[in-house]
Amino acid sequence: MQSERYYVKHFFILFEQVVENSIEIKRTNFQRKSDYFQLLMYMLCSVLGVVSIFWDWKASIPAVMCTIFVLIIRRKVDILSNMSWFIFGFIAVALLLSWIFHLSFGLFVLQCALFATVKLAISKFREIGQDHTDIIFSLNAIEFSCLCPENSDYKGYAINPMGYKKRFQMADIRSVQRDRKNLLIVLKEQIVRPRELRQEEIELILTYFRKNKADLIHAVTTERILQEEDRVYWIKLIVFALPCLLAVCAIYIFADNGRNSLISVCIIIGAILVAVILLKITNLIYHHGEKK
Length: 292
Description:
The chain contains 9 helices and 7 strands.
């Protein structure tokens, strides 16, 4: 009974949003499972970092001090907005400390990464204890956002679903329709299938388009959409996978499995040129077929 009341209330909230010319669909604790998985990974990395201290505690001291220094800087400086400078500075410091203390550069960087996960594990543990609401779909007259993993990246989506939330312009929409139990939105350059939507939510989104942009409902046939998806898959296979496969085989045979750097670089450049040529050819064939 309570679940029925929840869905009825949820339905009327969404209906009011449609009338107000906008839609916002939320989920409470939507990422709880993925948060537990991330916490487990951070804890494992933290344990490995602690174990590495006992393995060689003298070599671990510079890595511990460097990690603490980075965490202190992080409070004063936005590292994400200055990521390129941070990476350059970190590599320079890592090389300098490795040279001064006669450390392995790779091991130093690995230990710093492992020690940093201790802070991430603590932060994630605090987040899990709090209720959090995520917007999984929003729509207004200017833009819409939804969860849409590309290239069937379901593993990454399972770990961090909100990381696949993307924004698109409403002006780019060419067609909107229901594809079996899912919503299908055709844009200028791609096809989007929003995830995690219930059937009543899909119907309300379609109601919005019927009310405001009726010409977009089934503007492109499902058969045409499937043909376009097949074309994209074939382009990825022919244009990217084939040159990569040929380049790997050529490096193994003619470049002594990568030991001959000059030949390896020439083969890689040749593979890139082949990929560009194949892309041009496939585009010409596609546009020629459209004219017919």
